[in-house]
Amino acid sequence: MCKFFGNVFQGIKHIISLLSCSYIQIFLFLYGIILFTAMAQLGSSLEGRLRNTDLPVTKCLFPVFEAVVNSIYAIDDRLKSDNSFSITEGKIRVILERANTSDLFGGKAELLGITVEDNGIGFTKDNYKSFCELDSLYRESLGCKGIGRLLWLKAFDSAEIESNYIDGSEVKRRHFIFTSRGIDDLDASELNQESLGTIIHLRGIKPLFKESLNKLSQEGIAKAIFEHCLWFFIREGGCPDIRVIDGTNPATNLSEIYDSYMGSDNSKTATFSLGDETFNVLHIKLQRSDKNNNVISYCAGNRIVNDEKIKDVVGLYDSAIQTNSGTFFYKCFVTAPYLDKHVAPDRFSFLIPDKRANENGDELYSEIYFSDIRSKVLEAIRQYLSPFLKDTIEAGKEKIQAFVDKQAPYYKPILASLSEEEKSINPNASDKAMDLLLHQKMMEKEHNLLAEGHDVLEVKSGESDEEYQRRTQAYFDNIQSLKQSDLTRYVIHRKIILELLKDALSRNDDGHYSKEDKIHQIIMPMRTTSDGGEFKDNNLWIIDERLVFHHFLASDKSFSSMPVTDCDSIKRPDILVENVYDNPMVVTEKDNPPFASLRIVEFKRPMRDDMSANNDPINQCIDYVKNIRQGNAVTKSGRPLDISETTPAYCYIICDLTKSMRDICQNHDLKDTYDRLGYFGYHSGFRIYFEVISFDQHLNSASERNASFFDKLGISHN
Length: 718
Hints:
Layout: H1 2-17, H2 23-41, H3 46-52, H4 62-81, E1 91-98, E2 104-105, E3 108-109, E4 111-118, H5 125-132, H6 150-155, E5 156-167, E6 170-179, E7 182-191, E8 197-205, H7 207-214, H8 218-228, H9 230-234, E9 241-246, E10 252-253, H10 254-261, E11 262-274, E12 277-286, E13 295-300, E14 303-309, E15 321-323, E16 326-335, H11 337-341, H12 370-406, H13 412-417, H14 420-423, H15 431-456, H16 465-504, H17 516-523, E17 528-529, E18 552-555, E19 575-578, E20 598-603, H18 617-630, E21 649-655, H19 659-667, E22 671-672, E23 678-683, E24 688-694, H20 695-713
Parallel strand pairs: 1-9, 13-16, 20-21, 21-24
Antiparallel strand pairs: 1-4, 2-3, 4-8, 5-6, 5-8, 6-7, 9-10, 11-12, 12-16, 13-14, 15-16, 17-18, 18-19, 19-20, 22-23, 23-24
């Protein structure tokens, strides 16, 4: 290099001596010559390019795809130069090279390499020259980037190429090996026979890709090649005969795969324009799809670059399209010279911005955005599929309408606000999927109403009273519909709870009745207090609607653990309710008002008939009241509360009126109700009001109280 530059310098010095130039001109001239010479000495580093070329493990077959597509192009080139040769004579064989059968990998012989053979035009001088140049522009018109062969060396240690080609009137042989170090010519000679074609041996699978490639079956590789090269099968002129061979197994013919995928009248072409660019959309109806979805394939250089599941087309889902004449999966190919020019070097993506703004909100500049292309493609898809999706769309609407009418009427206000497109759902959708969808729409509406509510009451500049009233009334109407939905949901909840209670009261399969714990849990979660539970967590309305509103609530908690009793007793009432708010005694001017009342609920196991003096639920309730009154009651924050001997107490005993229970009630001089489904009475000494209520009475009473709500919703309450 130094000798080279020395000679150059002496030459330039001689030239300058012959010219009359300023020193600045001489300097600029010298600098230009040296810079040009240095650039001429620069070359591309193969190892560097390999390092900068990406091949994800999920795309481990792309090197094979490259070899197969090159073979298709080689056959196409032979067709152009030889009129006697036809596409039906073109042959491509993909051979899986395996180790001895004794060397197993996942139950089958280990894959060592893959060979691709064709009878195309071969490695002519032009083809070989292009192969030796990184970033060759030889097939630029076909969308090729000249780096496909780099993918061979990403997954394999080497590629050995044997090729027969015509040079003038002679058939010649070319034999070389391609590795990360470059190209090593092994043999170049003349042949006596005229058998044209190329054999590419991809050998030495690299560790990163070995497991993924060995997982693939012969059929799996064949289908993958077919899907990648589908464009060549449906193009005008067709595709050569391509087969995948694995040992002694019958060869897998890709034409047979094509026949199994495609049906009659299976394709139609549409076009659209963006600016000065024209795009083609080839609509395909597939008789089958291994992935059971409908996709868009964006292509460049007659090859698929990426697939997208189709979204935002009403009536089209990840399933077959149902028609009167049968079913099919939809696929379309999007091609354009613009896509060929803007495909990434690795051909895994496009160098086209997807959005009109970057992350900072700054406008991106591009003549065409990928989002624009996608929108036009979806428009073409909707137009093509519209006749096939009508029945599916209507069936989806009927599905979600029936779900709301019969199972989820609380969504009626939401369903009414949805557009026709939003109401469409997959006819095969589960109840869970529909519930999630409608719930999402409800949350979106609540969010929008909340955002709107911050501004709706503000009078806008120049707004008349009539406009203000109209605007605010529309907002309040929306709120009202949403609250109706909430109320409906709560009524449905009550219906479900009553059904659960009815089931809990029935005899089990083993002939026994449920324990009281099960019933207790339905009405109020056990071992909880109102401090840790929400309003909706209890169903005290079953017993008495007034019990829902309380100051403090404890379920199956000892007196010693209640913050409001200051009592060390370990006794546990089933449910303790303090200070029910509809009692007039709550109204007081004292800083620490007296408790309006104490309410205790006690459950007994259904059909229990062993009540006695030693097991008396009425005396049990009296003991609970005495424990509370004798303690020093405080608020949850520790302030004293006035619970006196005069604080009234209400005790509810929930049970079946068996003979022993009726005897207990009569012994305490309680009066039976008119329907003989309960007892009531007042103990003047302890100031306790008692109600002994049968399970049947509770269930019937709660059902009757809510019957009008059930009727409004059209649900049974028998």
